Amino acid sequence: MGTIMSEARRGIIPGIVVEVARSEGVNPEKLTSMVARGVAVIPCNSSRDRKLGKPVAIGEGLTVKVNVNVGTSVDLSDPYLELEKARIGLRYGADTVMDLSTGGDLDYTRRLLIRELDSPIGTVPIYQAAIESIRKYGSIIDMSEDDVLNTIERHFKDGVDFVTLHCGITYKALESLKKGRRVAGIVSRGGAFIASWMLHHGRENPLYENYDYILELAREYDVCISLGDGLRPGCIADANDIAQNMELLTVAELVERSRGMDVQCMVEGPGHMPIHQIAANVALEKAVCKGAPYYLLGPIVTDIATPYDHIAAAIGSAIAGLAGADFLCVVTPSEHLGLPLPEDIKHGVIASKIAAHAVDLYRVGGRVLDIDKAMGEARARLDWVTQFKLSMDPEKASEIHGRVKSRSGTCTMCGEYCVYKILDRKLYT
Amino acid sequence: MGTIMSEARRGIIPGIVVEVARSEGVNPEKLTSMVARGVAVIPCNSSRDRKLGKPVAIGEGLTVKVNVNVGTSVDLSDPYLELEKARIGLRYGADTVMDLSTGGDLDYTRRLLIRELDSPIGTVPIYQAAIESIRKYGSIIDMSEDDVLNTIERHFKDGVDFVTLHCGITYKALESLKKGRRVAGIVSRGGAFIASWMLHHGRENPLYENYDYILELAREYDVCISLGDGLRPGCIADANDIAQNMELLTVAELVERSRGMDVQCMVEGPGHMPIHQIAANVALEKAVCKGAPYYLLGPIVTDIATPYDHIAAAIGSAIAGLAGADFLCVVTPSEHLGLPLPEDIKHGVIASKIAAHAVDLYRVGGRVLDIDKAMGEARARLDWVTQFKLSMDPEKASEIHGRVKSRSGTCTMCGEYCVYKILDRKLYT
Known about the structure:
Largest sheet of chain A: 8 strands, parallel, barrel
Number of domains of chain A: 2
CATH topology of the largest domain in chain A: TIM Barrel
Distance between the termini of chain A: 58 Å
Strand order of the largest sheet of chain A: 3-4-5-6-7-8-9-10
Structural class of chain A: alpha/beta
Radius of gyration of chain A: 22 Å
Largest interface: A-B, 110 and 109 residues
Number of helices of chain A: 19
Strand content of chain A: 5-15%
Shape of chain A: globular
CATH superfamily of the largest domain in chain A: Radical SAM ThiC family, central domain
Oligomer: homodimer
């Protein structure tokens, strides 16, 4: 059995494509052709035998997908808390989970999440390679290329469905970064690990240099590569500099090489971005990467929204989605402040889902519009039970509605002066 | 002393323009010319003797302003709760307050807010006219034109700085509404009051028919007119129908007549709107109303976001602001569910401010960009005190950061693997 992409390219319609096409409401032939061209991806490690509980397709014209990040840290390293966070994320509508663990037993946490969850799972192997190097040698500097490649293979063997690899940070891009004199420098953890190694050794990025080998591994395990944006801006002032765009152009070349090896891949984007630059950024990615699915972290549209970065990200996500972005990474209220707790995950996912759904009303239409129409109808009928059921958070909606009792069967905003009491609906419907 | 607009048109630079120009960082001559042309307004009732505590200018290229609605309802009618809500709204960055009271002593509540607050105050006089008619005659049907006009004058005399008047709901627009067979009908309370009166009597809108008289009153008290959108859509399915746009075109004619009388005016917009229609809606308003300041309620970009409509509105507000909207009305988490409590007001205002600020980074630039840059610098220095100070909610930001202690002076997200610990900043700055 080849990769999902290789089958699609040979004109075979893989079973998982049929399954996903049904849930997306698209034609399986069309989705197969999209996978073949690399404008859609279906991350599913071959070790899962194409039997992922809830497989998803990400890409052109499909519903916008949402990823939720979980993962331990040095200060808070309970694998079961991370599992709980992942489950909450999935309950409120996330489609995929990334394990970004950096504390405690990294193998154990990753394997736990892969075993217990039915969504595609992503990881960032360089975290583990770097952290084990620090644990073993006292520093990231002594990490060998083999350490990096072996860790990637360990993740692939464990069954991860997609991995972020910061292959696009070239030495030249780092030199440009230095010249650019950024305010906030590098804010990607993976990017910072690799850059510190590269700058110390004066050597090229091992992920870039070993890209062909990595692609061979990815093909063997049918892992989808998510080309990370290690030089993404960390504040509005740094947005869209030469280094960031140089990395994107390198990534565009790597997309082509990935497709050439029948390995599915997507592209990651910022980060912090002023609203007027978002559409242009998405258009550039779509153009140079020839329609590769675009996976955005936010973007956050101002630096000062803390502790409401989930709102700043929802704004950026909606604008990006309108411009063609396919995949949104959740930003939580604890962004820039600390590891998110379960409640933060819930609020972050809901904010992302609001953005994704708002985009889907236009991007997908039809059945998505029907959901909102049903809500409009329930409102006009003053049917509160249906309104709660259709809301993003039925429990909380019902709680707010019931906080103070209305005496008129409406709500306490207008009471008896509710528009649906004032004006006979028969007059205008 | 004439109106602010009449002075501006005669080439006099009113003192209040100088004051506002300073806080906006614009040239007073330029702002005067904008007021003269009607592309900016400075709402300030003449009874205030131009001595409003915190006057604001709303319009073309100026910082995006935020209005917070407060007001009693039948089920919850404590004027002092509304005053508290208004103060919280202003504390978190609202620029103006509208009193939308519909319960208890309406005169008392309005006068209390005017007396106690230093921001411009707006009202919707038709609420009081309709409610007093219901209290007096048992129905809105018996409300006379004099009742309406006298209530408007009472608000003007009390010192309100701007009023929403639904003058654009013509009989023809209501006929179009009937033909359109909307899902959610009319959702504007003022619109519903007027429409039920019009449909019962088979008569034209008294606010439309008496517009010249209303303008004379407005000129006498120098009140800024906010032309309401009584036929705004109440769900995505109803967005941008003929009735809505017919009202906008009528409003555009009324804008011209207002300018002709040296009365400042602005235009109100929806409501519920799918994201891909927002920019077009703003462009249409700016075109037909010849640059009149555009005041949007949200827009909310999906119907199912309850109880997070403040996030759905922040998305719509940012997109509208990017397209040229000038004034945002806060939507709170209790929208569609009940009268907002103080905590809802806080969250609603912050969400609107995030949208407004994100727009201002582009629309105003300069000093606004500096705020975000300072945050980026504080992050790179791991200077937590400055980060909290610059955040939209210092208390909450500090609380989240301190929830679990980090052992490395960073935060619990990355701990010792913080990018600013991994990578020596000297390497790239």
